[in-house]
Known about the structure:
The chain is of the alpha+beta class. It is built from 15 helices and 26 strands. Residues 51-238 form the FAD-binding PCMH-type domain.
Amino acid sequence: xxxxxxxxxxxxxxxxxxxxxxxxxxxxxxxxxxxxxxxxxxxxxxxxxxxxxxxxxxxxxxxxxxxxxxxxxxxxxxxxxxxxxxxxxxxxxxxxxxxxxxxxxxxxxxxxxxxxxxxxxxxxxxxxxxxxxxxxxxxxxxxxxxxxxxxxxxxxxxxxxxxxxxxxxxxxxxxxxxxxxxxxxxxxxxxxxxxxxxxxxxxxxxxxxxxxxxxxxxxxxxxxxxxxxxxxxxxxxxxxxxxxxxxxxxxxxxxxxxxxxxxxxxxxxxxxxxxxxxxxxxxxxxxxxxxxxxxxxxxxxxxxxxxxxxxxxxxxxxxxxxxxxxxxxxxxxxxxxxxxxxxxxxxxxxxxxxxxxxxxxxxxxxxxxxxxxxxxxxxxxxxxxxxxxxxxxxxxxxxxxxxxxxxxxxxxxxxxxxxxxxxxxxxxxxxxxxxxxxxxxxxxxxxxxxxxxxxxxxxxxxxxxxxxxxxxxxxxxxxxxxxxxxxxxxxxxxxxxxxxxxxxxxxxxxxxxxxxxxxxxxxxxxxxxxxxxxxxxxxxxxxxxxxxxxxxxxxxxxxxxxxxxxxxxxxxxxxxxxxxxxxxxxxxxxxxxx
Length: 594
């Protein structure tokens, strides 16, 4: 009875946060600039991501930062750094990558921000081409396209990403139709600024067009080839989509996932493992004449009152305490998915009210959302869920893609692991489960080599500097290791913790071709860093081995010391994938150790 009352209390703490997402707030402080400089706004700088922390929690420093507003200024910035042989990294408006893409390393590097390179360069309606600067947000790109009667066929679901950022990481939506869901598949031209010899002024602009083999290197580049100045995209005539979410039992999910991407052009699936449910998104193109002016204003991407975010974090932390039972966690985990379903996940039929499925609307109103970055500053009375200026929700996000031929077997293994201890997966349900999106094979050297299903998992992260263990972290780690090792999955370049990238480059058949282009474009490694060299297999390993390293995902444990034995977490084999090595809580062993 006491446990039930405690869980009910946790749920009550969470409810205000969930309920405030059902209506739009009048204001909301947009996220801070990821680049901050102590001297004159351009010197003694730090750079972070929108979450305020990289996987290793390191503070990334740079000697200076520049904020070019034109291509000429961008060329001058690259030339200055190249002449001085300073390391350079590119930062975007919001820097949504979890990984250290924007960190030059050391303290002497230069940050080039593309935040002010955000204009439309050219619109060619007859050829359906749109050229924009690389710092333009997806939000603005789809609006410019719509105003010209065109549409970007596919995109990520969050519109706070920049064009250059999407190309750096291979960002995508969900589709196996046509060219697929990755934004880079619609790129037909790029202008990129790269280092050059002194005889060429230390920087040059390279212009690449469709058919140029280098385009396959540049359109997914991790930012190691130079700074993209402009991008030309091939668009389609404006169209409408019809969206319906259907929740079903997950028993036939392995078989359904094998065919769902072929049945629905924009279909995806979310799995709630503890509840044994799968949420299928039936999402297809319909005629422009189809009635409806629907809007996607996804609940998690709206501003929320800061007080509610603080309350939610307090509830999360209490749910992670050892004294909290799995029953407590599971009872609290029922609420998020139920409320999101009740509120149609933020979709409305007319921009204001949800009256029922299907929701029909124009592509630019359906494909992505992110209204928490649109609001005017309200002195942090409200903010995006992840705003690092407040001690609100703090999380990891892992993303990996499994080839379609292996998806049914992998998902069956996931379900086997769940069936061994369903309550261990309750916190996964609380984060709205595992999102699965379809990605088509790409010609890009660092794109997907095969048609794949991408798995996105979001989970609790401790604010503790030494990375306090999470409840049932072993099941998350076993799933990831199973995917990456047993099923040969590739990690998303902009997500994941360090261990996921160990050996990942060997899974890309054209990695050697990419490195050849890198050597030509930037032979001195101006745009490379220790992290990018590790990830690309050039030098070193992304693993950081030491006490507690597996708790933070900086390594895969091979010794108890890599976990937290003093807190009862020991290195153990996986339960289904026995070759996995995970940190598992063992109360009896802890008592013995003490």
